[in-house]
């Protein structure tokens, strides 16, 4: 992964502004400076190693961005790409806006709302080269929330732990119904005691069936199984 010295400095600035915002707002349970660096920032930039991240003009959506991960570290390291952060909680988006202003990040915009609604909006449906999601939902729910935003031929990246055989098995129907096929996995290990994790990469092979996403709340209440 190539991160320039300038980007490394900007990631350190992000660590500082995130700690300030998190002290006010409870954006994340991770509060120690080192833990923010490893658990949020290093964990986010791992995706830069993927082949699909090598282009410079990608249109990327981070669903359930919360306090801005993986959105903000990726936006710092890929200045030529256009990023959108989607979350249903306005106060988190306001905090991210303050962080992007402090960092002078001009390639990030925020989108307030539910995936289930925005995924039906033609401005967002089938529009993104890459959709990212960390700590949002189990795979079968996640694919229904995130799959509709992916361009046919584009990808969804899910940040996951290593032990997820059951979750993977339980996503078979969602993968078929949402035309999202598992094409790659990328294992990595974070320093100290953070351990092994993986990125799961899904390719969307055709436009999303009109049935999806279902109404707000239904993907979680009645997951595809
Ligand atoms: N990606 C961040 C935050 C994870 S917490 C990180 O890894 O640190 C999950 C976030 O997803 C919360 O902020 C929540 O508001 C948002 N979220 C959950 N379901 C959603 C939905 N259906 N539509 C939009 N946002 C959702």
Question: What's the short story on this structure?
Answer:
The protein has 225 residues and is of the alpha/beta class. The protein has helices at residues 5-25, 33-45, 71-77, 90-103, 115-118, 139-146, 165-169, 172-177, 218-221, and strands at residues 59-63, 82-87, 108-112, 128-134, 150-161, 180-190, 195-204.
Overview of the structural elements:
- The protein has 225 residues and is an alpha/beta fold.
- The chain has a single domain, classed as Rossmann fold.
- Helix content is 36%, strand content 25%.
- The protein has helices spanning 5-25, 33-45, 71-77, 90-103, 115-118, 139-146, 165-169, 172-177, 218-221, and strands at residues 59-63, 82-87, 108-112, 128-134, 150-161, 180-190, 195-204.
- It has a seven-stranded mixed beta sheet, sandwiched between helices.
- The longest helix is centred in the N-terminal third of the chain and has 21 residues, at 5-25.
- It is globular.
- The N and C termini lie far apart (37 Å).
- Bound molecules: S-adenosyl-L-homocysteine.
- S-adenosyl-L-homocysteine (SAH) is lined by residues 28, 64-67, 69, 86-89, 92, 114-116, 134-136, 145.
What hetero molecules are in the model? S-adenosyl-L-homocysteine
Number of helices: 9
Biggest sheet strand line-up: 3-2-1-4-5-7-6
Q: Helix share of residues?
A: 25-40%
C-alpha geometry: globular
Span between termini: 37 Å
């Amino acid at each position: 992964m190539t991160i320039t010295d300038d980007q490394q400095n900007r990631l350190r600035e992000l660590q500082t502004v995130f700690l300030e915002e998190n002290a006010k707002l409870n954006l994340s349970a991770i509060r120690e400076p080192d833990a923010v660096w490893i658990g949020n920032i290093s964990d986010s930039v791992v995706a830069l190693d993927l082949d699909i991240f090598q282009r410079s003009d990608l249109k990327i959506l981070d669903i359930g961005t919360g306090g801005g991960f993986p959105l903000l570290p990726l936006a710092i390291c890929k200045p030529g790409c256009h990023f959108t952060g989607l979350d249903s909680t306005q106060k988190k988006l306001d905090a991210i806006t303050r962080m992007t202003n402090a960092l002078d990040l001009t390639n990030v915009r925020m989108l307030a709302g539910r995936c289930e609604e925005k995924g039906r909006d033609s401005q967002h449906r089938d529009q993104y080269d890459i959709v990212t999601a960390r700590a949002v939902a189990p795979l079968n729910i996640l694919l229904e929330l995130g799959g509709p935003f992916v361009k046919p031929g584009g990808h969804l990246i899910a940040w996951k732990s290593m032990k997820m055989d059951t979750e993977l098995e339980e996503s078979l129907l969602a993968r078929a119904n949402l035309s999202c096929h598992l094409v790659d996995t990328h294992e990595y290990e974070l320093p100290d005691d953070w351990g092994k994790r993986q990125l799961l990469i899904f390719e969307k092979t055709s436009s999303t069936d009109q049935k999806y996403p279902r109404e707000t709340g239904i993907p979680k209440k009645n997951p595809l199984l």
